[in-house]
Amino acid sequence: MPNDHKMADGIFNKRDTSRVTMTDVGRLAGVTQVTVSRALSHPDKVSKDTLRRIQDAIDATGFVPNAVAGALASKRSNLVSALIPSLTNVVYTSFMATFSQHLRQHGYQVLLSETGFDAASEDALIATHLSRRPDAILLTGIHHSDKARKQLQGAGIPVVEIWDITDDPIDICVGFNHHAAGRAVAEYLKAKGHAFAATITADDERALRRQSAFAERFTALSQSAVPDANTGGTASIGAGREAMAHLIDHSDFRKGAVFCSSDLSAHGAIIELHTRGYKVPQDIAVVGFGDQDFAGDIDPALTTVAVDRLQLGHLAANSVLDKLAGRPTKSVHDLGFKILTRLSA
Amino acid sequence: MPNDHKMADGIFNKRDTSRVTMTDVGRLAGVTQVTVSRALSHPDKVSKDTLRRIQDAIDATGFVPNAVAGALASKRSNLVSALIPSLTNVVYTSFMATFSQHLRQHGYQVLLSETGFDAASEDALIATHLSRRPDAILLTGIHHSDKARKQLQGAGIPVVEIWDITDDPIDICVGFNHHAAGRAVAEYLKAKGHAFAATITADDERALRRQSAFAERFTALSQSAVPDANTGGTASIGAGREAMAHLIDHSDFRKGAVFCSSDLSAHGAIIELHTRGYKVPQDIAVVGFGDQDFAGDIDPALTTVAVDRLQLGHLAANSVLDKLAGRPTKSVHDLGFKILTRLSA
DNA sequence: CTGTTAGCGCTTTCAG
DNA sequence: CTGAAAGCGCTAACAG
Q1: What is the pLDDT of residue B1?
Q2: Residue B25's domain is classified under what CATH number?
Q3: Does the pLDDT at position B274 exceed 60?
Q4: Residue B280 Cα to chain centre, angstroms
Q5: Which domain holds residue A291?
Q6: What's this model's pTM, rounded to 2 decimal places?
Q7: Which of A285, A338, B85, B257 has fewest C-beta within 10 Å?
Q8: In this complex, is the C-beta atom of B60 within 8 Å of any C-beta atom belonging to chain A?
Q9: What is residue B292's predicted lDDT score, i.e. its pLDDT?
Q10: What are the residues whose beta carbons fall under 8 Å from the beta carbon of A8, sequence distance 6 or more?
Q11: Considering only CB atoms, which chain B residues are within 8 Å of A76?
């Protein structure tokens, strides 16, 4: 009877296989728990025969290692935290897809969160992430509160800031100069012969920086003011249409070029212009930002500012991996940008 | 001298504040580590005065609790795993945004991964996630390998399958019937008087199920075959254009209606049709799927199949929370769908 | 190649 | 209200 009871509590009858431990596996394979641990992390240090018996025991029990315990003991979580402004903006998620995939190949998992527009909540989110003891952390943008900077520095892990650039990163930054991008578009449009310009901008700190650089430069070159239509929080086709409509109805902008802070709003602007009978680019030219996958597929194909997001993903991931491996790393990576000339401007 | 040395190693000089422990905080506040733990998780069980001293010590040291140790000791990670097919598909990420936000308000963090199209790798990904001992896990779709099902059941945690529906979920499922959706669109288009139809479908198991239900039903109603153009892996505007071009160039489909597996490909189809001089919906009508945010903003506004993603997010999150709290929960939630009639069909 | 011994930094009883 | 003791399941030296 007592034996039967033991059996009922034994590993074969654990309905909850997540509670199977290395000790259980070891017992079944006739070795200690430590050998099981070794078999999993340093298989070369365990004999072929033992390895096989352990593998059998793992299969029989459905053992799934407990990474929480592993992380606590080893002080390495194999977790990389990532904070992006929005989960639904392809510009950020396509970067994340590359970044995660790259890191996954090296055994790291990415803990991804959306920071949203509430800058105040970033601090709390950072603290929550740090409590998981990630091996590295990635942030979007270069503006963070003093408290956040302090916490991040205190964490003693690699910190990567992306999508913008500064001489004074917390640790590493990889991105490009938004001011220079806005300026470059102004010069491009002026060179194309446009005497008037307007902007359509989302409520995003980096977009606003591009816009102001654009307006400043274009005004300097053409002596004409640059009206702006703000789309509010998130760029979208609908917001772009509305902004374009607003520009036409409520400013004296009738011909020239529009610089949009996103390909989405640019697409919306084009739709609105077509609906109203304007020809793009003959009557009004449109420039987007981001080179999203559809930019070349709309009509007319969209002229836009391209940043190599694939390279951004790889560089960010490699910077993390290099730092983690103790290899020397550059702390500032300027990716640059490129104006992709298509038909819309 | 020995004292000085102690100071140099003391908590005030730890550059690495992530190594400040509750013991350090307690020492500074004149209490033991246990009291610090209590102050954080059950503040009501600690005296006002002690609480204040502990709070001061936390501020002074920059202490960030170690959730890894906490999870190991308490067997609760406050982590919820989520696996979605793609990080760049708004249909999934907009759901995730709602889901995470909702869970975050209840103290859970979401560990998000992209499964991609490689069905085989899902198993490995599930195992990796389970090793973090999440308190619950969310999967997209209802088709998982036997091995995966076994592991998931063994984990002894709530499992939510979304975006599809079945009588036999692993635990909980919340979604809608894809077959019924395809069928409903066929009936809608037939009722609109269309005698011919075609489909544009991405390489996605659920999209294919909608397509075959559509084709079967439409053929039954109209006695005419339904040609399909497959866009391959991911739906996009570009893929939609190509597929539409292919349909016109390589099938005898010239008039009628096209049912697309995504609003993106539908948008692409419309652009291609306009480019070729066809009028939508007079010459060819177009129906999308998903009701993405731009659907009403393109020209003509897109008729599409809408699923309430917001409700999906809330229901999925609430199911998890209910289950975790031991409240009774329904295991199958059918969200249904709705054909949104706009101008394109 | 395998085992022993110590923790990792918390939470959870159980005492006082 | 506070403390002492006992782990959670693993990894990291160190022996053998």
Answers
A1: 30
A2: 1.10.260.40
A3: yes
A4: 32
A5: 178-306
A6: 0.92
A7: A338
A8: no
A9: 96
A10: none
A11: none
